[in-house]
Write a structure and sequence with these properties.
This protein is an alpha+beta fold. Helices cover about 20% and strands about 35% of the residues. The strands form nine sheets. The protein has an eight-stranded mixed sheet, sandwiched between helices. Strands 5, 6, 7, 8 and 9 form a five-stranded antiparallel sheet that branches. A four-stranded antiparallel sheet has the order 1-2-3-4.
Length: about 700
């Protein structure tokens, strides 16, 4: 019988002095680190001692280190750049080749930067954090490096001709910086300039123009956002013939203001605050997140609109509708080639591609691109200024990802690379089902299970979800999921619950703020549907989620402990009373609400996992994993939740990696260990291998 999933209201509004575990928020506090070391030792003793752990870690490490993985590239000035890790390059190498070579089965690569050698020479724990190019043909770039994998990074100018850092080049110390090129000698820079220069979320509030050869302190202020905004940034569109400069005020995750910079003047782009906009040569393209009444018309939520850029600045509001959603479709991505706009559309959580072109200023012409009609598709232009070529990735749960080269205007697909099969997919089937949530909303989900597994044959099942920030969960190929779970006899389930972006902004907004419970109800409904269909039973049903997904499984744990046999809660958000005071938490108040507002706390308190775990309740065994160096979601969330549950007498395992940032691991060795611990826990607890005993209580 379906149980009431509505949580009960909290008894009172807690204050900081009511929290006996605040000391665990001291990331490197001596007492906190000792607690972490003790919990790590207990988890490792329990899980790493299991017979299957070592061979599983070895297999996962081999998958991560495989030289046959697809070397995905970004193209700059005609060369293909790739960052690569394998057994011989633990931290990784940044390398490049020509497109002609990249087409070959075994390209000849030139090493641009060896991160292992750099870390060794500089005695630093460098983790690759990306690159900012000087477009379109610049021989300089900005390389970002993180210590241990956190979001904060140092920025150093790099010479692509000499393959070396520029001795007297642009350099920024460790911070959550935002930098982009204006020209070879000028940057837009937002960083920690000192007190008052960051937002309450910890991101740059001030955008400055920094010229080569001048101290950062002399950089010219271009724009200042409000302290309670999310961030501010600047960027230069260097499309030949259409060069423009823009400043963006990011108010929160979903609202922003965009300004065109002309000299010292900032001209506000008259778009809805919750819409995204970008320049496309002579056009401005606007993606709506709500209905827009303008120019005598109503344009629907989630539509993509275009009109002349200059005409728009002059007040014109005659838009062409490039995409209009339906009940089953949403816009999943936009990519620009020299003459085309490529739209990746989600249609009942499966992708298709639409191509749009304009000729001689005429109306946009559209056509459906002939691509595989299953799974997930990814589109990325090689060079949006000079080429109509683009990469297409095709993937699903059972077919290894394939990378193709295509050209706008045609349907010919040239295969370039294919991921090897890391597990035998022949025994498995994929199905899509629909659960009905508590308010009657249909919620789709995918099931990957062994062929012939029928009703009445319950199987160990892992249910994964996220349900937030308009993130869409789509079919994907994972050698690690196949090797560590499917091959162990498990069934895998991916839930497309509200809060995500699978059906556009409406699907996301349905679970915002005071409506968050709907995401949890959807997830619980999928779990109940799996039991009803006979796919699994509660004692064989495990759930897993990370970050916002950690909040999801934390809420599911406290609201329906009877429905699950095991819970994996990764780099989670759990304390909804203090989340906005920890690291980047203030930036998420548009998603969850403000705990300091009594009206918001009333609904936050109803589901905050940290405040709803109770002594005397029977909970499934939980494995919490996080990272000491996570500077996005504070490790204190997982620490405090685990400590409270242990003190209440519940079964808990806790493991914290000392590196890795929000990803939880900084290299392949750490990643393999983390996932081997995770899947060993699930295999043992859910009985995926019935000859082994469940994990024991270790508190």
């Amino acid at each position: 019988m379906q149980q009431d999933t509505q949580p009960q209201p909290a008894q009172h509004q807690p204050h900081d002095h009511d929290d006996p575990y605040l000391w665990l928020e001291e990331v490197d506090g001596e007492r906190a680190r000792a607690w972490v070391a003790e919990r790590n030792a207990a988890a490792e003793a329990e899980l790493e001692g299991r017979p299957g752990f070592a061979p599983l870690r070895t297999r996962l490490k081999a998958i991560l280190d495989s030289s046959e993985k697809i070397p995905y590239v970004g193209v700059h000035d005609g060369l293909c750049y790739n960052f690569w890790r394998d057994a011989n390059h633990a931290r990784g190498i940044w390398r490049r080749t020509t497109l002609e070579q990249y087409r070959q089965p075994a390209p000849q690569w030139e090493t641009v930067l060896d991160l292992d050698a750099l870390a060794r020479d500089e005695d630093e724990n460098w983790v690759w954090a990306g690159v900012a190019w000087l477009e379109p043909h610049g021989a300089r770039c900005l390389v970002s490096l993180s210590r241990g994998g956190g979001d904060a990074h140092v920025v150093r100018e790099f010479d692509l001709s000499a393959c070396a850092f520029v001795a007297d080049g642009f350099t920024l110390p460790e911070a959550k910086s935002d930098v982009s090129w204006i020209d070879r000698d000028t940057l837009y820079v937002g960083t920690d300039f000192g007190p008052g220069s960051l937002t309450e979320s910890g991101y740059p509030r001030i955008v400055k123009e920094w010229r080569r050869g001048t101290p950062l302190e002399q950089a010219i202020t271009v724009y200042e956002a409000a302290p309670d905004d999310l961030a501010a940034s600047g960027h230069q569109d260097n499309t030949p013939g259409w060069e423009r400069a823009f400043i963006q005020r990011q108010i929160d995750f979903y609202t922003s203001e965009l300004f065109l910079r002309r000299g010292e003047q900032l001209i506000k782009i008259d778009k809805p605050q919750d819409a995204n906009a970008f320049a496309l040569r002579d056009q401005i393209v606007i993606e709506l997140r709500s209905d827009w009444d303008i120019g005598g018309r109503t344009y629907p939520q989630a539509a993509l609109l275009a009109t002349g850029f200059d005409a728009f600045l002059d007040g014109g509001r005659d838009f062409e509708v490039l995409f209009a959603p339906t009940a089953a479709t949403s816009l999943d991505g936009v990519s620009v080639t020299k003459t085309a706009l490529l739209l990746t559309v989600l249609d009942n959580v499966k992708n298709r591609v639409v191509e749009l072109q304009r000729t001689n200023g005429q109306a946009w012409q559209r056509r459906d691109v002939d691509v595989p009609a299953f799974g997930a598709l990814g589109v990325a232009a090689l060079d949006s200024d000079n080429s109509d070529d683009y990469f297409l990735t095709v993937t699903d749960f059972l077919h290894p990802t394939t990378l193709y080269l295509m050209t706008a205007g045609g349907d010919t697909r040239t295969p370039l690379k294919s991921m090897p099969a890391f597990f035998d997919a022949a025994p498995y089937d994929v199905a899509q089902h629909t659960a009905v949530s508590g308010d009657g909303t249909p919620v789709p989900y995918f099931v990957v299970t062994r062929r012939g597994q029928g009703p009445g044959e319950p199987n160990p099942t892992l249910l994964y979800g996220y349900g937030g920030f308009e993130v869409s969960l789509k079919p994907f190929y994972s050698g690690m999921t196949g090797a560590a779970w499917l091959d162990q006899g498990g069934t895998y389930v991916l839930a497309n619950i509200r809060g995500g972006g699978e059906f556009g902004p409406r699907w996301h907004q349905a679970a915002l703020r005071q409506h968050r419970q709907r995401a949890f109800d959807d997830f619980i409904a999928v779990g109940e549907d799996l039991v009803r269909r006979g796919v699994t039973t509660p004692d064989k049903l495990g759930i897993m989620g990370g970050s916002n997904g950690g909040l999801l499984v934390g809420a599911a744990l406290t609201q329906r402990p009877d429905l699950f046999g095991a819970v994996v809660c990764q780099v989670p958000l759990l304390d909804m009373r203090r989340y906005h005071e920890l690291l980047a938490g203030a930036s998420w108040m548009g998603e969850y609400g403000d705990p300091d507002d009594p009206a918001d706390w009333e609904y936050l308190a109803r589901y905050s996992p940290y405040h709803n775990v109770r002594p005397g309740e029977r909970y499934p065994l939980v494995l919490f994993t996080t990272s000491t160096r996570d500077d996005r979601v504070h490790p204190g969330h997982a620490r405090k939740m685990a400590a409270r549950m242990l003190d209440q007498g519940h079964d808990v395992l806790y493991w914290e990696n000392t590196e890795g940032g929000h990803a939880g691991a900084a290299d392949n060795e750490q990643t393999a260990r983390m996932w081997a611990l995770t899947y060993t826990f699930l295999i043992e607890q859910l009985g995926a291998q019935t000859d082994r005993s469940p994990v024991q209580k270790v508190n």
